[in-house]
Amino acid sequence: MPTVWDEVRGREIIDRHAEREGPLLPILHDLQAGFGCIPSAAVPFVAEALNLTRAEVHGVVSFYHDFRDRPAGRHVLKLCRAEACQSMDGEAMAQRALDRFGVVWGGTTPDGSLTVEAVYCLGLCACGPSALLDGQPIGRLGPASLDDIAREVAVR
Amino acid sequence: MTRVFVPRDAAARAVGADCVAAALQHEAEQRGLAIELVRNGSRGLFWLEPMIEVETPAGRIAYGPVTPADVAGLFEADLVSGGAHALRIGRPEEVPFLKRQTRVTFARCGIVDPLSLEDYRAHGGYRGLARAHALGPAGTVQEVTASGLRGRGGAGFPTGIKWQTAADTAADRKYIVCNADEGDSGTYADRMLMEGDPFSLIEGMTIAGYAVGAAKGYIYVRSEYPDAIRAMEQAIVVACAAGCLDGFDLEVRVGAGAYVCGEETSLLESLEGRRGQVRAKPPLPAHKGLFGRPTVINNLVTLATVPAILADGAKVYADLGMGRSRGTMPIQIAGNAKHGGLFEAAFGLSLGEIVEEIGGGTASGRPVRAVQVGGPLGAYFPKSLFDTPFDYEAFTARDGLIGHGGVVVFDDSVDMARQARFALEFCAIESCGKCTPCRIGSTRGVEVIDKILAGEHADANISLVTELCETMKFGSLCALGGFTPYPVLSALRHFPEDFAS
C-alpha cells in the first residue's frame, strides 16, 4: 500500500465522487483506502475540488475517529471497550492483548505488523468480548483467540 | 438437493460460522453428497451460534453450536436427514426462546437467503408496497399513523406524524434517510436485519419515498459494520436490477466512527460532508433536513417494520403492545447473559422476565446485579426494579429509557462506580463539542467521580456530580449530553455502596 501522496491517484479518487451529493466522507474513505491515511498534502486538493476551505476539510478529517494522519500497521485489531463487552470482562482481555503485543491503545508494534485500537461496540454484544481483525469479526475472545491473532498477524 | 443453512451474520462468523461452512462443503464432497449451502441471517439465538439448519421433509432441523471438528460426526449421524446427534436442537421454532417471540420485523431473519428476492417474495415480501400503491400516498401515511408505530431508535416519536409533516411540506425534492448508525452497546438489531433481511429495509424505504414524495434515499451505516455494509450494497444492486425500487434511488453511506452521528441532525450534517455536529431544532428535519429539504429520517427497525404493517394492516400491529407503546420491539439481550440474543415481542414484558426467564440469568452463573437498558445513555436498573414493563413511558417514569432495545446484563462482579465513570468518559470521547455542558461537563464529571473514589469530600462531590448531571440534562442540545446523566445518576441512586472509598 503506497503511503506517500500521489497527486494523480489522489485526483482520480476525488474526481470519482465529484458529482455526488455530500461527497466529502466518501472521498476521505477512499483516500484512506488508497493511501492508508489522509495525507496532509491531500487536504488542499480536496478543498479545491469541493469549493471548501482547507480548514473546513481539516475540521472534518479531525472530527471522525476513523481518519488517520499516518498509516496504521499492516494489520489492525479493534478491541471493543463498550459496556456489553465490559460485562464479560472485556477490559481484562483487552489489557492482556495490549500486554501481549506490547502496545498502548492506538499504538503499533515496532515491526509495523499490528496496530491495536479501541472501538465502542461492534454489534456482537451477545458474543463478547469481541474484536475486529482487519474487518473480520471475532467473538467470545479468550486467551486462545490472542494466540490465533498473533499467528494470523505474523503469517499474512 | 438438501439445503443446509449456515448463518453469514457477523456474530455467527465471529464464532466460526465460515469455518463450519467450509468444513460442511468439504465433508459433503468427500462423501459424494450434494448439498446446497445457504448463508442465511441469524435467528438470533447467539449462545447456539454457529447454529446450522438442514431442510428435511419434517421441516428445518437445527444443530448447534457447531465447530468444524463436529462436522464429520454430524454427517455420520445422518445430518442431511436431520439425524440424532448431541448437538441436535430440533426444529428451531420449537426452541422456547423463539417460540415465545412475536416476530413481525424479524419474521424472515434467519429463515431466508438474504440476497434472494425470490425467497423474500415467497415469505411475504413486497406485499406491503403493493398495498401502499393501492392505498395511495396519503392512505399509506394514515396506515402508518394508525399502527401506532414509534421511532425505534430510542426517541419513540410517532412515525406517522413525522411522515405526514414531510409529506405536507412542499419542496423541489425530498429525502428518506435511514439511521443505521447503531452505536449503542448492547444493540445489534439493525445489523442483523441488514445482514439477514436487507430487502425489508429496501421495501420500507421505497414505501416511505412513495408516501411522502421522495425519490432519493440514503442508508447511513456505521463503519464498524463491514458485513452489513456489504450485504446492504449487494441487496440494493439485486433490487435495482430486478426493477423493485419503483424509481426510488437508494444509496449506502458509511459513517466514520463518530457515535454522535447516531443523533439524527448530526447524521444529516455528516451526510452533507461536515463534522457530525448537532443542529438545533427547530427546524425539524421533516421541514428542513438533508440539504435543507424535507427529510424523513427514521431508525432502520422503524423503516423495516413498515412493510409488515402495510401488508397485514395497521390494526394487526396496533393490537399488540401496551399503553402508548404499540406493536413489537426487538429486544436485544446482551452482555453477561446466559441466553443472549434477539427477542422480538409485544411491549409489556417485565424487565425481570426478559433478564431472568428469557435471558436465563448470567453467562457467568453468578447473580445478576445490574442491567443497563437502552445503550450507553440508558439507566442501570437494580433487581428491585425488575417489575418495570418494557414500554417507553414505564421506563421514563423510572428515570430510564428503552432506547433502541439493548439490555446489557452485569453480574455481581460489576463495579458501578466504574460504570458511572465510564459513562462520563465515553461522553467526553464522543461529544461533538457543540454544547458546553456535554463537552466540558463530561470531563469534569470524570474528575469529580475520581475524587469521590479517592475519598476526597465524598458527600460534597456526590452532590456536585449530581448537580452537574442536572445541568447536562437540561443544558444539552441532544441526547448524548442530555442522557449521559441517566447511567451516572442511576448508578449513584441504586448502588451507592460502590461509591464509598
Structure characterization notes:
Chain A has a 4-stranded mixed β-sheet, with helices on one face. The longest helix of chain A is centred in the C-terminal third of the chain and has 13 residues, at about 145-155. Chain A contains 7 helices and 4 strands. The radius of gyration of chain A is 18 Å and the shape is elongated. Chain A is of the alpha+beta class. Chain B is of the alpha/beta class and about 500 residues long. Chain B folds into 4 domains: about 1-100, Glutaredoxin (3-Layer(aba) Sandwich), CATH 3.40.30; about 115-320, NADH-ubiquinone oxidoreductase 51kDa subunit (Rossmann fold, 3-Layer(aba) Sandwich); about 325-410, Roll (Ubiquitin-like (UB roll)); about 415-500, NADH-ubiquinone oxidoreductase 51kDa subunit, iron-sulphur binding domain (de novo design (two linked rop proteins), Up-down Bundle), CATH 1.20.1440.230. In chain B, the strands form 4 sheets. In chain B, strands 2-1-3-4-5 form a 5-stranded mixed β-sheet, with helices on one face. In chain B, strands 13-12-16-14-15 form a 5-stranded mixed β-sheet. In chain B, α16 (about 415-430) runs antiparallel to α21 (about 485-495) and α18 (about 440-455) runs antiparallel to α19 (about 460-475). Chain B is globular, with a radius of gyration of 23 Å. The relative contact order of chain B is 0.10. Chains A and B meet through α2, α4, α5 and β4 of A and α1, α10, β12, β16 and α16 of B.
